[in-house]
Model the fold of this input.
Amino acid sequence: MITIVREQVKMGRNADHSKFEAGWPAAMEKAKSPDFYLGMTSLTGENEAWFVIPWESYATVGESMKREDKDPVLSAELARLSLGDAEYVSSARTIQARARTELSVGEFPDVGKARFFQVTVWRVRRRPRRMERPGCVRRQKKDSGCTRSFQECLHRPT
Done:
């Protein structure tokens, strides 16, 4: 399971945004948090910064939230950083996604050594009893090295 935070960075604010974002890992490190994320910025397309956070389960997401809530210094710093992001970001979207191992191919690379990532977003319209397309995607990607597939989890208010 992963959380992806997509931020639309304001034009001309990339360098300032990158410097400001350094406050998030610094705050987590100071609090000795075990949580981590991978930050990426777009080379093409819209001016975005993505932050990808891996989780073992929803329970680990809950544990992280409890840890942050219990630490008043960390909570205050994260609130300050969140508010300060508005100077550099025009909008943000948070996505929860689960792994689709049946559509994934190859060994996962050492993320610490990776320099570039390619992200492809597939929007599939569901048809009753027809799921041929994901199989086609898997066959096409089989010889291209490593492919990890995730599906967005939709959360509806109860």
Q: What stands out?
A: The chain has five helices and five strands. The beta strands are 2-9, 38-41, 48-54, 89-99, 150-152.
